[in-house]
Amino acid sequence: MRRIYLIPGAIIALMVLTGVPAWMRSEAPQTPRSANADVVLPGESVVVQGVVPPSTTLDALLRNQGLGDNVAPVIEAASKVFDPRRLRSRQPFELERSFDGGFRRFEYEIDSEASLRVRVAAGSPGMLTAEVLPIPVTLRHASAAAEVTREASSLFAAMKAAGEGDELAIAMATILSGEIDFNSEVQLGDRLAVAFERRQREGRPSTYGEISAAEFSMSEEGRTVRAIRFTTPDGRAGYYDEQGRSLKRIFLKSPLKFEPRVTSGFSMRRMHPVLHTSRAHRGVDYGAPTGAPVVAVASGTVMSATYDGSNGRMVRLRHGSGYQTYYLHLSRFAPGIRAGGRVDQGDVIGYVGSSGLSTGPHLHFGLTKNGAFVNPIAEHRNMPPGEPIPELSMTAFRAVRDQALAELAAAARGVSRAKTPS
Q: ∠ CA 182-184-187 to the nearest 5 degrees?
């Protein structure tokens, strides 16, 4: 078997001028084929490794690697266990074939947990088998801690300074989003610690698994918010504070995830930046880049997704307990957002823009309670905490909590030692 990688065009041009190297020429005797025996040929084979290019199909991918008329049976076999329309760009693949296009094996990494394998059936050269296989993963328990500084002035930057990726910062922000608005409340001197699973695979970069515990200490307020992952006897996993109260509130603190800032707060008298008149500003403006995803702060029903010259593209949602939320000046709506549809808390409903009366990309977020506009930030503070863990499960929860808090404390001490001069 010969193993090659995708060859740059300059090398291919040189081969055309100088001739194909001997190691790429099959010396196996040519054997006559019947019409039904065109899948496998004897002799040398070549293995091509690469990644799926953008905007391609499984058919085009296989034809571009020289399978020719042998593509159809491969796709037919693969379709029994995998939808070819789910092929994603930049995912790795490996193809083994003979030099004249006979198929032998195709493997494609569906995601970080599973791969597709299509190959010739053992003992049956004219048949193909396909299966989806789990990718072996080793779980390692890890922890990280960091401080928000002038050099690392956001949750994302602080996490990066600790040697971790944006995915971990996003996961942590999602867990604590009912208690902390990471768009506006992060200050210099704030500290964070997180205990999590690191998913390791041979030959591939590690990824993140579940967060088992997280804490964020707000230096200015003197407040620390902690989250402990716990699975109740009915099999539902969630995040709870030290007293066992759920951190999943009715409303998230912010409809944005990616480091925007509050540019204008709730006010009954504000100078409008476009109209230059004093008028009420019944909501909160978040400055954010065009295209930043906007999420529903609570589960509910889409009342409208409209456009007008003042509000621009606007989504209005109805929630329980008499609440409605408004999301204005969007650049576009998310797919499927239309009147009468249902959304869950955290679902993307649109993207930041500057439509309507707007001086730049931002999101205007409004909240009404029983028909009257209220300050979203103040209203969130008055909302009750989440449902607690059942009393019968509190002993098991306390054991999990104490272990988690010990891990967070150990991670935080490591940061403190690193900052202490020797």
A: 85
Round to whole Å and give the CA distance between 418 and 162: 11
In whole angstroms, give the CA distance from residue 39 to residue 128: 9
How far is Cα 408 from Cα 215, in angstroms, rounded to an integer? 8
- Quick one: which of 107, 99, 55 has its CA closest to 77? 107
Burial of 264 (0-12, 13-18, 19+ CB in 10 A): middle
The model carries a pTM of 0.60
Surface-to-core class of residue 156, CB atoms within 10 Å of its CB (0-12 exposed, 13-18 middle, 19+ buried): buried
> Per CATH, the architecture of 2-27+37-134 is what?
Roll (3.10)
pLDDT at site 149 = 94
pLDDT category, 262, cuts 50, 70, 90? low
Q: Following CA atoms 361, 266, 318, 170 in sequence, which dihedral angle do they give, to the nearest 10 degrees?
A: 60
pLDDT digits (tens, 9 = 90+) for 183-221: 778 889 999 999 999 988 877 778 899 999 999 999 888
> Which CATH architecture describes the domain 138-249+387-419?
Roll (3.10)
Measured CA to CA, the distance from residue 411 to residue 418 in angstroms comes to 11
Contacts of 253 (CB under 8 A, 6+ apart): 177, 178, 179, 180, 181, 297, 377, 380
Domain positions in the chain are: 2-27+37-134, 138-249+387-419, 261-381
CATH class for the domain made up of 261-381: mainly beta
Q: What pLDDT does 258 receive?
A: 60
Beta-bridged to residue 318, according to DSSP, are: 301, 324
Q: How far apart are CA 9 and CA 7, in angstroms?
A: 6
Looking at residues 364-385, what average pLDDT do you find? 86
Cβ–Cβ < 8 Å for 71, 59: yes
Statement: residue 275 has pLDDT above 50: no
Tell me the pLDDT tens digit for each residue of 59-105. Answer: 999 999 888 888 999 999 999 999 999 999 989 999 998 887 789 99
Residue 334 tokens read as: 């998310």
Answer yes or no: same fold for 2-27+37-134 and 138-249+387-419: yes
Q: How far apart are CA 138 and CA 93, in angstroms?
A: 21
